[in-house]
Design brief:
The protein has about 90 residues and is mainly α. About 40% of the residues lie in helices and about 5% in strands. The protein has a two-stranded antiparallel sheet. The radius of gyration is 16 Å and the shape is elongated.
């Protein structure tokens, strides 16, 4: 049976998230750094809400409490290649 994926970019599964929480990574920021969730090309647009929901369920915290704990950086904007060419 296939394991549900939380973060498609980094291929992190639900069981990996739950195991990390049991190991003591009990904030979004710790989970993000430990599992690299939210650090792929999508910058967490899909996976961080899922991660927050799992963390809230596993720790008994509210989503509001969990979501306060994470820092999110805006994604980079692509630059046209022409800007890097000489003359």
């Amino acid at each position: 049976m296939d394991e549900p994926i939380v973060c498609r970019c980094e291929e992190v599964t639900v069981s990996e998230v739950k195991r990390a929480i049991v190991e003591g990574y009990d904030t979004l920021e710790e989970l993000k750094r430990h599992l690299r969730v939210g650090m792929g090309p999508c910058q967490g647009r899909t996976c961080l809400p899922l991660l927050a929901w799992i963390l809230a369920q596993e720790t008994g915290k509210s989503l509001k409490e969990v979501m306060v704990e994470v820092s999110v950086r805006p994604p980079l904007i692509p630059v046209p290649f022409e800007l890097w060419r000489e003359g």
